[in-house]
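User: Show me a protein chain along with its predicted structure.
Assistant: Here is one chain, sequence first, then structure tokens.
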Amino acid sequence: MKLVTVKALLPSELAYLLEHGAEGQVELARRFVESGEEHLSRLRRKPGLRSAATPRPGGR
């Protein structure tokens, strides 16, 4: 048996992930850890992103 963590994404987070691929996945994970809710999926949470067009640190 293998245990895995699943995080339900909000629509804006999914759009960001699809637009930015693997780098977007790393960035979302970083932001979830930063918020302290990397393992929580709540119905009424703030998005990990302000919008799908939110620039990433370093301007990449």
